[in-house]
Amino acid sequence: MKIPADFDAEIWSVVAEIPAGRVATYGQLARLIGMPGHARRAGRALAMAPEGLPCHRVVNSQGRTAPGWTGQRELLAAEGVRFRANGCVDLSASGWEEIG
DNA sequence: CGAGTGACTGCCA
DNA sequence: TTGGCAGCCACTC
């Protein structure tokens, strides 16, 4: 286990910092906790994330939502997140730390 | 120890 | 701007 248990905790902590109406990428979360390149581990951390976590505000670099999880897109839309014509999140407009 | 997999990422056409 | 391909890293069989 190269990845410490704190990894998931750190990811969840960063995810909890994501403001409503904004979205972050797995790579961004991994980078913010000081572990760039571990985006896949970040995704796995969200896969086992608790319900109280706004994991729906996390998408991949393409702005795509999690497979097998259609509610995520609806939750983001309810937060005020904008979407592109293809149904992907508009990271250029709703991306976290991309505005302020 | 080797091969396969995934809520990923970056480059090229 | 969009779609296809290869690389990455840890977990599982």
TrEMBL record:
Q: Which UniProt keywords apply?
A: DNA damage, DNA repair, Methyltransferase, Transferase
Gene3D superfamilies reported for this sequence: Winged helix-like DNA-binding domain superfamily/Winged helix DNA-binding domain
Give a GO biological-process term.
Answer: methylation
The family database entries (SUPFAM superfamilies) matched by this protein are listed as: Methylated DNA-protein cysteine methyltransferase, C-terminal domain
Give the GO molecular function terms.
Answer: methylated-DNA-[protein]-cysteine S-methyltransferase activity
Q: List, alphabetically, the PANTHER family matched.
A: 6-O-METHYLGUANINE DNA METHYLTRANSFERASE, ALKYLTRANSFERASE-LIKE PROTEIN 1
Give the protein's recorded name. Answer: O(6)-alkylguanine repair protein YbaZ
